[in-house]
Amino acid sequence: MSTQPHTAIIGAGIVGLAHAWAAARAGHRVTVFERSDKARGASVRNFGMCWPIGQAPEYFAAALRSRELWQEFVRESGAYSRPTGSVHVVEHEDEASVLEEFAKAAPDLGYQVELLTRAQVEESCPGVRRGVARAGLLSRTEINVDPRQALALLPAFLGEKHGVAFHWRTAVTQVREGKLVTASGETHTFDEAFVCSGHDFETLFPEILAASPLRPCKLQMLRTVPQPKGWNLGPMLASGLSLRQYGNFSICPSLSEVKARVAWDMPELDRYGIHVMASQDRFGAIVLGDSHEYGDHIEIFDKAEIDELMLRELRKLFDFPDWTIAERWHGIYAKHYDGPEFRVQALPGVQIATGTSGSGMTMSFGLADRFFAKREATV
Prior knowledge:
Layout (H helix, E strand, L loop, with lengths): L5 E5 L3 H12 L3 E5 L15 E2 L6 H21 L3 E2 L3 E5 L2 H17 L3 E4 L1 H7 L10 E5 L3 E3 L1 H16 L2 E3 L4 E5 L2 E4 L4 E3 L2 E4 L10 H5 L3 E11 L11 E4 L15 H11 L1 H5 L5 E4 L5 E4 L3 E2 L9 H14 L7 E12 L5 E6 L2 E5 L5 H19 L1
Parallel strand pairs: 1-2, 1-13, 2-9, 5-15, 13-21
Antiparallel strand pairs: 3-8, 4-8, 5-7, 6-7, 10-11, 11-12, 14-17, 14-18, 14-19, 15-16, 16-17, 20-21
Helix pairs in contact: 1-5, 1-10, 2-10
């Protein structure tokens, strides 16, 4: 009789698939249950950025481990990937001060970055408008993937390479110790389960999630038509507004000046949590965003005002051959205010794992790997 532990994963978004992969590498027999026919949530509604540069120092190593695992997946699956790196492009003096402060502290924290002059930004970033950049911060650790393609290929990769089984169109309605029940009334047993159901706080363990520091966060995004004649964006781009969004810059004294100026001059950006970034997909289109609305402020209807504000700020710094918008959408993820991971034991042998706070593509592989590695080390 096999002693191989059986692990159930509830949710086939990036967090669930990351845990499935980590459990399989640890020698578990893994079964994934997903209510839809494929991943349809936040995991496919993002920039496709593996973005280590944006992570706070205590999570940077896990982000780099995610990067290694993305590279492994790409090699073995043939998925699209571009190791583009990234450039934060800034136009204000206080933003340039933040970049200088971060670049000075970065080596001691493990980051490898390089300050760029305006001329260097314009030389290395075809997507930056000429004559407006004050400075830039180059990081080479970022990878661009296609989230729609990656989430479509990951299940086949896990099935073929690691024997992971999938139950699609199977909603799990109850999880008990050692047993789960689906909407059709079927019962499945397990040794361990991970509930990775994103921003669904109502179906499983609602009392735990209601008392948690998690809140839903809605973002709006856009995609241009494919750019003409094979035009290449170069590095993925972020603006000075993004300094307000990412934990790595919280160590910089000048960040408070940036936040105060934006709040005073452009309160509409704070109202909707707008910062602007750009990446290029495998078809040559530019993915643009994004915004942040939380909790009770979330509505099912998207706001044209948010799209217009994002485009206003994007056009200040960036320039693409064709700005025609082909797609508009929104996503909702679970925001955790104390880091990129919410993990709690709901029952013996049952863990809730969610709350990657918009960093799922960057952090999920590394966090799941770290969890299983730590546990194996204590056995």
